[in-house]
Amino acid sequence: MTYLKKYLLFIFCLLSAELLAQPYRIVSLDGTISEILCELGLESQIVGVDVTSTFPESLKKLPKVGHNRNISAEGVLSLNPTLVLGLETGMVKPEVIAQLKAAGKNVLIFKREYTIESTKNLVREIAKYFNLENKAEVVIKKIEADLAKVKKVSPAKKVLFIYARGTGSMMVGGEGTSVEKALLLAGCENAIKGFTDFKPLTAEALILANPDVILLFSSGLESVGGVEGLLKVQGIAQTKAGKNRKIIEMDGQLLTGFGVRVGQAIVELADKVNRKEN
User: Fold this and answer.
1) How many CB atoms are located within 10 Å of the residue 135 CB?
2) What is the fold, at CATH topology level, of the domain defined by 158-276?
3) Per-residue pLDDT for 132 more than 50?
């Protein structure tokens, strides 16, 4: 091989390595994915997120592309991403995904269920794409260490979850929701039976459920005027939880995200229920 050929080959290898080392421009369409990316050391490559990406705090400074259920392709494309990540359960519209792919963007949509095993699998799948399998196992060990700290509620308490956006918009969480899955992991029982997903709150349903504890997102409790405001909602004061003022709140993304902080979420949930019962 001549000197010139060797030189050109050397330059080619240098350029190839530089191209391979180029950072991604990532847009995350779900808070759970955003947390996993940050835990894997990829936060510096995130250029945009959806509004559920609230942790770590530094993500709040990034451009927002809307809620994962109402993403527009235009907003994502304006950030010129090289990679877009989302979840099937995030309900990103198929037509939006199609638009992003048609624009030449690499779009990865991951499956996720509200189980600990699914959380671990999600961490591994995302890490694998970036060749960070070793980091994934470190993250998973951290999750397991957090879960080992859970002091389950015993005996089980009936907990009613209310999704509120002001007193005029209040729903109760039924079976199969992410909140119910968290409640079960904490040793609690969902006070609502007989339907899945969410239904409007009624005084009759409240009294029939008669929960020991009422749970809301922190933002939801604030929207109804705090504990005092909630107790004024028809039917609340007639429940066991209302009579005993056993009302707790948690950050919404922490409670329902089932991401890298899932162990911390279950610890906090169980502790708050236990503390309210003392």
Assistant:
1) 16
2) Rossmann fold (3.40.50)
3) yes
